[in-house]
């Protein structure tokens, strides 16, 4: 007998450890809406992202990786704002109720949820082409969020980790590869939650790198009404990228999407604190350029053939 919608929700989501009683959950899965209680003095940050099979990930990607990525890309938005993850909802559209697939999907989602300390409080389940929408809710002390519009001339531009690695991993997967650091970076991106929270008060602006470093730096530039000038010579190239011709490696680093690293700006005087923070978190943070008067983001010393990923054209 195929699973009914309610059995499916109960078995794979309502009974999952990540759907237990979380802080602030007055009422979780099972009613018409969840009831959540916000601590006094805190603001609520809300973000939603949809992953469509064949658009955001190759069809046939392991279900565990899909579950992880669906939550990871959303947690990354909270990280970029400096928020602490609290609650999420899951709208799942499935072609069929395949129990083995669902078990793996829920395991990937649940493991990351547990690590991030976020509770599943509701969702929706429908039949159709595979698509996953996660909405995350985070909190932080009122007025302390990291925004895209806080960069000023004189600030420095930083990036965590090794952008471009995930795009290389996707290419390797599409070519039949299955292992290595690049493939892992694509299948299991790690949202930089601890970094984001610790950057509150240190960074002047931040964004997570989902479309490509240069394109996302351009979003900070536009929202802050400044220019971000990156330097090709300063870009951190992962060892796996270092094996490619330099032009190609820089192209991946500047235009490859899907990394979910943080690109942020900070006053020059914060460099030592950022270095100490990165060391404490066991993360690489690299100074890659500076903020100047002007507009747009550019890379001095290299022009990538494309800037990043867009769904609806480059006009
Ligand atoms: P309604 O018809 O009132 O929208 P649903 O039948 O869609 O209710 O959902 C029943 C309950 O299960 C609700 O509390 C809803 O939030 C939850 N739910 C539905 N789908 C999911 C899912 N994929 N993950 C988590 N909770 C879900
Ligand atoms: Mg519903």
Features:
single chain; 315 residues; alpha+beta; 6-stranded mixed β-sheet; 4-stranded mixed β-sheet; 12 strands; binds adenosine-5'-diphosphate; binds magnesium ion
Quote the distance from N terminus to C terminus: 50 Å
Radius of gyration, taken over Cα atoms and rounded to an integer in Å:
20 Å
In DSSP terms (H or I, runs of 4 or more residues), the helix count works out at 10
Could you give the count of β-strands? 12
Helix-strand topology string = HEEEHEHEEEHHHEHEHHEHEE
What overall geometry do the principal axes of the alpha carbons give? Answer: globular
**Could you say which structural class the secondary elements and strand pairing correspond to?**
alpha+beta
Bound molecule types: adenosine-5'-diphosphate, magnesium ion
Largest sheet: 6 strands, mixed
Order of the strands making up the biggest sheet: 8-10-7-11-9-12
Low-confidence stretches: none
Strand content: 25-35%
The residue-averaged pLDDT reads 94
Give the fraction of residues assigned to helices.
25-40%
Describe this structure as you would to a colleague:
The protein has helices at 5-14, 63-81, 99-116, 165-174, 181-187, 193-199, 213-224, 239-242, 246-255, 271-281; strands at residues 25-27, 35-36, 42-52, 84-94, 119-127, 131-141, 156-160, 203-208, 227-231, 262-266, 285-292, 296-300. The relative contact order is 0.16. The protein is globular. With 315 residues, the protein is of the alpha+beta class. The model has no long low-confidence stretch (mean pLDDT 94). The chain is built from ten helices and twelve strands. Bound molecules: adenosine-5'-diphosphate (ADP) and magnesium ion.
């Amino acid at each position: 007998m195929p699973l009914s919608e309610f059995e499916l929700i109960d078995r794979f989501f309502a009974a999952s450890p990540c759907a237990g009683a979380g802080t602030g959950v007055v009422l979780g899965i099972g009613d018409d809406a969840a009831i959540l209680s916000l601590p006094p003095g805190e603001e609520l940050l809300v973000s939603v992202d949809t992953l469509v099979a064949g658009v955001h990930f190759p069809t046939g990607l392991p279900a565990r990786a899909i579950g992880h990525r669906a939550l990871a890309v959303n947690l990354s938005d909270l990280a970029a704002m400096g928020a602490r993850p609290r609650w999420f909802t899951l709208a799942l559209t499935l072609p069929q109720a395949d129990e083995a697939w669902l078990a793996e999907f829920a395991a990937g989602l649940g493991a990351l949820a547990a690590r991030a300390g976020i509770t599943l409080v509701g969702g929706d389940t429908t039949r159709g082409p595979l698509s996953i929408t996660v909405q995350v809710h985070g909190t932080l002390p009122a007025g302390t969020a990291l925004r895209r519009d806080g960069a000023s001339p004189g600030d420095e531009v930083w990036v965590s980790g090794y952008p471009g690695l995930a795009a290389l991993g996707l290419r390797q997967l599409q070519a039949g590869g299955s292992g290595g650091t690049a493939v892992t970076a694509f299948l299991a991106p790690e949202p930089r939650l601890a970094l984001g929270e610790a950057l509150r008060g240190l960074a002047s602006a931040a964004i997570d790198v989902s479309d490509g470093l240069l394109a996302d730096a351009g979003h900070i530039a536009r929202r802050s009404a400044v220019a971000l000038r990156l330097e090709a010579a300063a870009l951190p190239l992962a060892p796996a990228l270092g094996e490619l011709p330099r032009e190609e490696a820089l192209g991946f680093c500047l235009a490859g999407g899907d990394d979910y690293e943080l690109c942020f700006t900070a006053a020059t005087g914060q460099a030592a604190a950022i270095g100490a923070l990165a060391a404490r978190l066991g993360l690489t943070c690299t100074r890659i350029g500076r903020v100047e008067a002007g507009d747009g983001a550019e890379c001095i010393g290299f022009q990538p053939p494309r800037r990043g990923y867009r769904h609806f054209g480059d006009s």
